[in-house]
Design a protein that fits this description.
Radius of gyration: 21 Å
Main location: membrane
Membrane topology: Multi-pass membrane protein
Strand content: under 5%
Distance between the termini: 75 Å
Protein name: Phosphatidic acid phosphatase type 2/haloperoxidase domain-containing protein
Helix content: over 70%
Order of helices and strands: HHHHHHHHHHH
GO cellular component, one term: endoplasmic reticulum membrane
Shape: elongated
Keywords: Hydrolase, Membrane, Transmembrane, Transmembrane helix
Number of helices: 11
Number of strands: 0
């Protein structure tokens, strides 16, 4: 039995770079941003916020990744030769799932900022956050090429697909699904999970702050 060919790594955080390459080390961490967003951002959002806009944002990212896997297994384009040295070439490379994830995220986030959905900050802070997300998306795309996991064409394909799917899903959520948000909120499952929609509230942070103080004051008065 050829043992190396029988083994397969769990590649969720399996990112390699050349020893002594400080830029490669930095980019290896950058390429894990999608993992941090998925596990840290959306899981904690559901546990503590349970906003329908955020939940459907996460659902869109899952749909985007499923589309990515379907295309990869259909096209079956190989990763670059440099990937052989990384021992991580047991999956196809076109389009890049990291690029697609980050450009979906940046596109959807920017569209939410344009509509003022779910933001607790002023207009200037919103665009600073948008710039940060687009910078992370571009650097993540570059990291996949620099580290040898993808070709330039593969990361640009992922970026384009992520942008298109992100914009399309935003339209679906806010034009097709949004009228049903009250129904979801009032459903048995919605009530059990305490899901809510605050996208109609201009300043969610101030609204929640005022209500929390009012509730505390009412408790003291009782």
């Amino acid at each position: 039995m050829d043992l190396p060919q029988q083994l397969k790594a769990v590649t969720l955080t399996h990112v390699r770079y050349r020893r002594g390459d400080h830029l490669g080390h930095f980019l290896a961490w950058i390429s894990l941003v999608p993992v941090f967003i998925s596990l840290g951002g959306f899981v904690s959002h559901f546990l503590f916020r349970r906003e329908l806009q955020g939940i459907f944002f996460g659902v869109g990212l899952v749909i985007s990744q499923l589309i990515n896997e379907f295309i990869k297994t259909t096209v079956e384009q190989a990763r670059p030769e440099t990937c052989t040295l990384l021992e991580a070439c047991d999956s196809h490379g076109w389009p890049s799932s990291h690029s697609q994830f980050m450009f979906f995220f940046a596109t959807y986030f920017s569209l939410m900022a344009c509509k003022g959905i779910g933001f607790w900050f002023g207009l200037r802070s919103r665009w600073i956050l948008n710039l940060l997300h687009w910078c992370l998306a571009v650097v993540t795309m570059y990291s996949r090429v620099y580290l040898g996991y993808h070709t330039v064409a593969q990361v640009f394909a992922g970026a384009a697909l992520g942008g298109v799917v992100g914009a399309s899903w935003f339209w679906v959520v806010n034009s097709v699904l949004y009228p049903y948000f009250p129904v979801i909120e009032e459903s048995a499952l919605g009530r059990m999970l305490c899901v809510k929609d605050t996208s109609h509230i201009p300043d969610v942070l101030k609204f929640e702050y005022d209500n929390a103080r009012a509730a505390r004051n009412n408790t003291k008065s009782d």
